[in-house]
Specification:
Elements: H1 5-10, H2 24-36, H3 48-55, H4 59-71, E1 75-78, E2 82-85, H5 90-109, H6 119-133, H7 137-153, H8 158-175, H9 181-200, H10 204-213
């Protein structure tokens, strides 16, 4: 694996997100988002110098951010080798999907009366369909991550959003190790569209059923 990675090269664009007071939590949030977007694949070493320079943060701040993400199971520290993006085991993937279903079903069941704020979901579905027409399955994967993030955001809960950010970042790690991206991601297009249309029609039970039946 490379020692800098395309994600590190693009991190300078994220520097304004840190504000005037750079904190480890904010750095961790940026890196978590980059992992969720697929910039840092499983097994890649995160180079302190490249990332610290791109974000303009101290080594101590960056190491604390790494520690936070290691606690979240997104990174692993290997003695005398450095920090790497975690490679998931089969049991990890199964647990991630189970957690996602539990959270999403609870969110949909707890929605009030329609109409719901579905514009972000619509944008994610449309983005995935456009990517599929280009045969861009990485783009479909990213659109799917956005869809599930926005689905949970319907709850209007900062705590649930925070929980889901970690779950989706871990899920993205699983996407990198599949042999056939099209076979994995193509079903998202249909299932996400079904969930969207059910919510648009006010059918929370139907939407929950679709979420439950979908493994991916």
């Amino acid at each position: 694996m490379g020692t800098t990675g395309s994600g590190a090269e693009g991190l300078a664009d994220d520097r304004p997100l840190l504000g005037r007071t750079s904190t480890a939590e904010r750095v961790a949030d940026i890196l978590r988002g980059r992992i969720a977007e697929g910039y840092f694949p499983p097994g890649e070493r995160l180079a302190e110098d490249a990332i610290g320079k791109a974000l303009g943060v101290s080594r101590n701040t960056l190491r604390e951010a790494f520690r936070l993400l290691t606690h979240e199971r997104l990174l692993v520290h290997e003695l005398n080798r450095g920090v790497f993006v975690r490679i998931l085991a089969v049991e990890d993937v199964e647990d991630i999907y189970r957690t996602r279903r539990l959270v999403e079903c609870a969110v949909v069941q707890g929605l009030g009366a329609p109409p719901y704020a579905l514009e972000p979901l619509e944008a994610a579905v449309a983005g995935g369909e456009r990517a599929a027409r280009r045969h861009d399955w990485q783009g479909v994967s990213t659109a799917n991550i956005h869809f599930h993030r926005e689905l949970v955001a319907l709850a209007g809960s900062a705590r649930t959003d925070e929980l889901m950010r970690g779950v989706l970042a871990e899920l993205r790690l699983a996407f990198h190790v599949v042999d056939d991206p099209k076979l994995l991601h193509q079903p998202y297009l249909i299932r996400n569209r079904e969930i969207l249309e059910a919510l648009r029609a006010g059918g929370r039970i139907c939407a929950v059923s679709t979420v439950v039946s979908a493994r991916t």
